[in-house]
């Protein structure tokens, strides 16, 4: 692991794999940095940089001090610290909440390009009734932390239903340790529920927006809306791929990213 620190005292811990143009990988949701392990081997020719999101893993000390209104701004500043520490403008590749962070960072920092896989942005009609954060908080207050995380998994990872959630969780690498992050996930979800996609995003860099046909319908809708709000973007939809696309089909997605970066 490597670290860098901003003048404001923000410390970023990250892994670096390979050589080439820097490609920062931003994980989402409750996924750990290990989420990117299937992806990194397919990014030959790039220096894959994998930071640990603040509040998840190595930076747990500040999570109780950060409100829902501050979560996204905190993460953007965290990524900007890493961007500023690099010798050349990096490419940002974010998944879900990491994709939202990548796009927001690119409105404030100079980056070479952005790749956003199903950014965690809610369509207006869906957001109006979104109450996942409240439902999770109610369960946490009742001492039911595992049930709170299960609600997150059901709504975000399996919105179309799952036959045996407990069996799926038994195979999930971060279960049950991830229940320690329940409060942080509540704050993250509140930030998503409050975020409103502007009609135009001030991102000068080219952006590749990715989505899959087997992912949640509201995220596919948001991917298209994000594409429309960007001045320089390309939208690609992968047939038969879910919200876990980068880890599920890393070879296909990495090939699309490489083609985009070579022709931008």
TrEMBL record:
Keyword field contains Repressor: no
Protein name: Alpha/beta hydrolase fold protein
Organism: Natrinema pellirubrum (strain DSM 15624 / CIP 106293 / JCM 10476 / NCIMB 786 / 157)
Domain of life from the UniProt record: Archaea
Keyword Flavoprotein: no
Domain AB hydrolase-1, first and last residues per copy: 23-255
UniProt-listed SUPFAM superfamilies: alpha/beta-Hydrolases (SSF53474)
GO molecular function, one term: acyltransferase activity
